[in-house]
Design goal:
eight-stranded parallel beta barrel, Alpha-Beta Plaits, TIM Barrel, aldehyde-lyase activity (chains A, B, C, D), homotetramer, DAHP1/KDSA (chains A, B, C, D), alpha/beta
Chain lengths: ~325, ~325, ~325, ~325
Amino acid sequence: MVVVMKRGFTAQELDGVKQQMEAGGVKVMVSHGQDTTILGAEGNAAAVDMEKISLMPGVERIMRVTEPYKKANRKYHPDNSLVPVGNAVLGGKKLGIIAGPCSVESHEQILEVARSVQSSGACALRGGAYKPRSSPYSFQGLEKEGIHMLQEAREKTGLPIVTEIMSTDNVEMFEMCVDVIQVGARNMQNFDLLKQLGKTSKPILLKRGMSSTIEEWLMSAEYIMAGGNENVILCERGIRTFETFTRNTLDLSAIPAVKSLSHLPVLVDPSHSTGRAWMVESMAIAAIAAGADGLLIEVHNDPPNALCDGAQSITPDQFQALMEKLKAMAALVGREL
Amino acid sequence: MVVVMKRGFTAQELDGVKQQMEAGGVKVMVSHGQDTTILGAEGNAAAVDMEKISLMPGVERIMRVTEPYKKANRKYHPDNSLVPVGNAVLGGKKLGIIAGPCSVESHEQILEVARSVQSSGACALRGGAYKPRSSPYSFQGLEKEGIHMLQEAREKTGLPIVTEIMSTDNVEMFEMCVDVIQVGARNMQNFDLLKQLGKTSKPILLKRGMSSTIEEWLMSAEYIMAGGNENVILCERGIRTFETFTRNTLDLSAIPAVKSLSHLPVLVDPSHSTGRAWMVESMAIAAIAAGADGLLIEVHNDPPNALCDGAQSITPDQFQALMEKLKAMAALVGREL
Amino acid sequence: MVVVMKRGFTAQELDGVKQQMEAGGVKVMVSHGQDTTILGAEGNAAAVDMEKISLMPGVERIMRVTEPYKKANRKYHPDNSLVPVGNAVLGGKKLGIIAGPCSVESHEQILEVARSVQSSGACALRGGAYKPRSSPYSFQGLEKEGIHMLQEAREKTGLPIVTEIMSTDNVEMFEMCVDVIQVGARNMQNFDLLKQLGKTSKPILLKRGMSSTIEEWLMSAEYIMAGGNENVILCERGIRTFETFTRNTLDLSAIPAVKSLSHLPVLVDPSHSTGRAWMVESMAIAAIAAGADGLLIEVHNDPPNALCDGAQSITPDQFQALMEKLKAMAALVGREL
Amino acid sequence: MVVVMKRGFTAQELDGVKQQMEAGGVKVMVSHGQDTTILGAEGNAAAVDMEKISLMPGVERIMRVTEPYKKANRKYHPDNSLVPVGNAVLGGKKLGIIAGPCSVESHEQILEVARSVQSSGACALRGGAYKPRSSPYSFQGLEKEGIHMLQEAREKTGLPIVTEIMSTDNVEMFEMCVDVIQVGARNMQNFDLLKQLGKTSKPILLKRGMSSTIEEWLMSAEYIMAGGNENVILCERGIRTFETFTRNTLDLSAIPAVKSLSHLPVLVDPSHSTGRAWMVESMAIAAIAAGADGLLIEVHNDPPNALCDGAQSITPDQFQALMEKLKAMAALVGREL
């Protein structure tokens, strides 16, 4: 931690800051520059009250020099975390491709899609039962019935199921029924939900918030891990920028960034980020090129008649063709599929 | 609704689109431009499946020409909504100033602040009991105990209390205990929460999400109103941009924008938006100049020792001085305080 | 300046950094934290090569603790700068309102607008002769002829003229012909232009770039001032964000921010920022409330037939009414008009 | 073009709009919806004054349905443009890799880098002689002398040279001396410069502005092409967003977007976008995966001692290794290197 004093600070003010820092258990080094005097903390600064110091007279600003996340930090956990998803493992050499429709629509639909993505090599089935829709007048998902259809598809195919949770009301039911619990972008800072998920035993797929920095994203992972559940899978799904041609702006440079900062596996969702089915292939391949540990892809057996997000869903045939390209891409970056 | 056809569309494709639109119950007008052919819907287009049409062969794009929100729309409700907050009313000629600490910290603290903001003319007391903190290691609020302290302060001062809800688990308790239920920026699209709040009888103070468009904000209000609770108060609290000098970028032009689009009252929070106490006064006055119906201001009896957000809290004396200026400002724009 | 070392740095790496800092003429203080070791510079760090140090082995990051701008910095120039514009002065107690059409269109038009804004109390006339248009097929301004029309209007009214320069080719001509040379948002980092304007004797009105931070904006002012021309007037005109209801997002909190960081006068352009004439009044009043030293407002005698930006131009009558309100607003914040 | 009327418009207002549209030479179709009446233009709407109509009484809004760029538009030029760069061609099957230092620093440096990137397979040499630096106190480039060093390197290696122009003052000299004239992000909307470059005979490498939409970028290409120079090469270099871990946010989904909208070749600059040398490899490979026609990469023989942007420069050895990977990547997406 570094404290920068204002020009014209008094000796008394400097003393005050020094004492407050020392009260937090650190030794303080003072360094007098020409225009600037700074104080550095020596020792563990965790117990120093940074906000209080920032408000003390004579203080210009205070800067943290270490990351605020610990359990998610690669510094304290240099090896990649390996998160089990059914029989697959995310974060290792083998890529994990999770595929399925935006929404579960019927027994037949989810089973048909499950079988086709399985035969193409997907490691898990995704499908929304509870849907976050910006309009209250849009289709809101089949809810509990949708979960049952997913379970049925799992029973018949053996594919683990991944689906989004939207409320703390459903934590218990999700823990019982699904294999990976997805937290959507809109709930990335729903801290009550994160805390409760931290007490479950199921892996959590944590999407990046639409306007969340990488640090905030890792802090949300930290919430889950601090509760005891260290099986967190991150998923980049595009951020909000001024550009409107694509639904969101896929931030692929976040992949090497997060891989350097954290040991957690990172997936990319090329469907939601672009919002356009014809862009999914190029962004999926680029994501693997950028170092992603896997993908979350929307596949629908009949996109023009999908109840939700048909515009960004690819067909089973397109998915099959994409998987072939991804195999070659994986090899090129030293991965497997 | 307007559909634009791709260059080189076929007569059959045009027919398909026309039929799909007509299936939604509208009459269709076709207009052939030089480069572009467009179809316009005549009649109520609500039942037309826009997403499906957007995916039909030959379609370049489809544009909505009406707002997707109805109950929040000023077109269908030209007069300002008046929302009761204790004995005050938000949305009328009289401005409403809601003030109090970021967090409830103790019986003494909340009562002292309540008394001082009341004597300066605040119409309600704010104070956080459940706190959304980006770090799991930060103070998370006094929770239920904090609600009790707020109730006690209300009992002794008569001021209605405003506090943030973070989970559907607490809807019932909040409805029973508080006067205005606040939904924070991070939960603006927590749709399950919005749905449940739509069934309560208490006014909802809905903060704008950090990266939410004005339309998305009004759609979240629509979620609450569609559930039956039309007492929604909007609150602009700054949006996330590339500028980092301020905590967020206060979007004051959103005030006249929302006032033209919707009949709901709009407040401004100059504390969270700037993150700096010395900016609160100028932004508070500017907000009233811009047409806001009131303000949400953080006031703390001892900012340097606040448990949360001291850097953006003003003191009771500063609040008192600000209220004097706001009175003059209110008169200048034809309002009262 | 503060250098943070990587975990696991070697004594040799630390020495290397220390020596490189000392080579820049500073004394170095080393402070060993639990997870972190930091080096602070004592003395004038201007000659230390920060980028080189950031690349040295063992270095995690390097942080500047002082602003990179000197001449524009209020720390070294605590009093407000006063910039003369004709007989008026910007930056003092009296506000300066600069008004006129987006584009100069004809002798009659510019003279008519000049006379009306003068009678309402404007201190200078604005009008574009060279226009930055996003399409090459749009009206590009009357160019040299437009400058002559502005000169003529000045001759007949006495109002100083403010107009935008778009190329270094015109610096000499502008210095000769106009009173205040405006640099538009798109040219805020056209450094060659800034350098050449730094050698002229005319005040420069420097608009903030669409996606420029406050620091970059002040650095562009520094370019002009470093060349010898200290008469720089800043102008906030809205930044680009994800919100599209308004043309740009007016950043009014930038006003108190810049006034605290710099001694230069700051204007606000409520016309370009909102892009909507009906929003100009509320944003103009709010800007003065926020502490602006004046305004730049588009006034057109016939907005529906303007050759450019009619949608954001107010009429002379609306301008007259606005000036009355601004007088009251000025008084409220201790200013004059 | 589509005009949407306000609720409650009068027959006279509708007539006025219709006549104004017809005055632009189009036939008008009126379609009456339940809440909305719209007018569609039949025929070539180029001569219709959209801004004027947007201001007419009774008009709610006006929407363009065709792109504003013509020469850059793939609709009117379905085949890829092939732009010659020395003996290479950009936009065809073969990828073009342009490499070299951020700044030309000396005869030896530029020649050494030129020879090494040539032997690794680069098709052109980049190097800055005129540098846009945010601080007037930073190294500004060797200017004319730097151009001479580039020419010398070309003479000795045969590599065509690419360098950035910053002012209209230098158009003639650049046209004479360099092979590809680069327009930097900060000058993407320096329209005077674009116009003058439109009259030269050299290919223009047009970087995307930091906060420019894809449409604005293509409009800037249109400026150059409208002047007669159709050899425009686009270059994505990251956009400004709220995320600050990377210098900018590389927008790789812009690649398939632009390739679908325009026939012009598109490069990616993984160095400026990330600002970090260790991210260059993954983003370079991802860019080719995304469909880019080539790359612009910063290579320096001694990054820790570079006069500019050493943090984002890779070494000749790293470049050599990258080229090997790019060859494999190219094959995977059906391209060559």
